[in-house]
């Protein structure tokens, strides 16, 4: 009995030493992980656990494994295939029809699929290090998936879009710009100056002060609105946007970053042209010496060729357009859809200058903008799967059994000695 | 760069497109008389089948004879309306049993589908001068010429909420086909509605 008890105690000591030295490794692979985490958390506490992921784990699995690690289990992980480094963010845009853009970072050449709570939105192949996908209104979380690894993001906030105000004469340029912006989803008020002391209002009455509480941007296509230049200037300095197109330059010189140069006449719209704006007439913009402007469109076929430029005035943004007749692009253009191209172009100009205060979105749950980075932060770098496998001697029940055997042998030894009257 | 409005009359292969030669000058005169819109002093004639059609987002088409568009004309008219142009077609016969009306409406239906009547509340009747009762009557209607009817409404093809093609059985081509100087003998200028059509085209 004494020998048996001694042997059992030696074996038990060996097992405890094995556990203290890193001990046995338990493993869970892909679909077993959920149940394994439950088991390790409620029934056994392995010294070392190794998880093998098929894709990036969900935030629940990742955080659970991290908690297990905090409880004393050494958790390691690896993946069947390298996890793609995908990250996503949803950025609001001042665009009524396409109010957000999804910015994605993903490995070059990978195909990303964008979806929301209602289904697929778009898919695109990444050329270099990322992509931007402009999306309509989304429902729930936006999910960006690359090879089974999905980043889940929610819009940080939305933008409050106010109305636009157009002031000026009734011209084709103003009419088609207004039409394009209305088709793009903007609510537009127009103050048409049609006759001396006769102003025709389209939309809401713009007689109210032009301020950022009512308007996102003001557009002028001629010098009629110059009488309100001071009011418009104050509007821009307080954050509003201003676009000068058509023949407006001379009426708003103080607000604009450039003066118009000599006219470059229009050309015939080429049937196979991929640069339709090069057929438009151009009054090239010549930058003022005292401003630092941002060129938005340069015509390489003209010298000077600056066609559209922007700059900041106070807290607002100003865009100057050197094309006096963009409406001809819409009527004449040979694009597949020049109406849409003209609409999108004007929409983008307005989105770039519009005053659009953010409206914070409620905090979303279940987001995971950077799955791989989150796993690395929670569980460390992946390890190779060379850790010694689990064996029967690692079963904790064996330790209990050895302890019971040693105890029983010692009790029997003690009982035997008492029965024999031995000391 | 000239931003002048230029009044354009459509020239088409079939029919007598030039049947109202004084109308352009009369409407140009009215535009100058009542508005500050910059306007070219004379109109132009623009072939319906040519690319120049797209230089003029408002074009007037009239005639007495059958209207049969060529394939090129039909394609151009369709593209013109889809891109935001406004084609005004006026029945110079003032006769819904006449050949112009039958053939023109047939061509329109083939190109765009059926015409839709414009309500009296439409912007066209209120965008400059106010016409609360819809399109103003013409002397042809009141004298019982043509189909002997007083047409209460105009019809249209709309795109994106805007009129792309306006059809009239009221024969404004006769009503407004007079020398502008004659207006000084009139108590009420009948071309005021023409100003509304031009202002509508320039602003909507």
Q: Multimeric state of these chains? A: heterodimer
Q: Could you give me the name of the CATH homologous superfamily of the largest domain in chain A?
A: Class I glutamine amidotransferase (GATase) domain
Helix content of chain B: 25-40%
Radius of gyration of chain B: 16 Å
Tell me the domain tally of chain A.
3
Radius of gyration of chain A over all CA atoms, rounded: 35 Å
Query: Which residue ranges of chain B are poorly predicted, with pLDDT under 50 across at least 5 consecutive positions?
Result: none
Dominant shape of chain B? globular
List segments of chain A where confidence is low: pLDDT < 50 over at least 5 consecutive residues.
Answer: none
- Provide the CATH superfamily of chain B: Domain of unknown function DUF4159
Identify the strand order in the major beta sheet of chain A: 14-13-12-15-16-21-20-19
Fill in the CATH topology of chain B: Rossmann fold
What's the CATH architecture name of chain B? 3-Layer(aba) Sandwich
Distance between the termini of chain A: 16 Å
Helix content of chain A: 25-40%
Morphology of chain A:
elongated
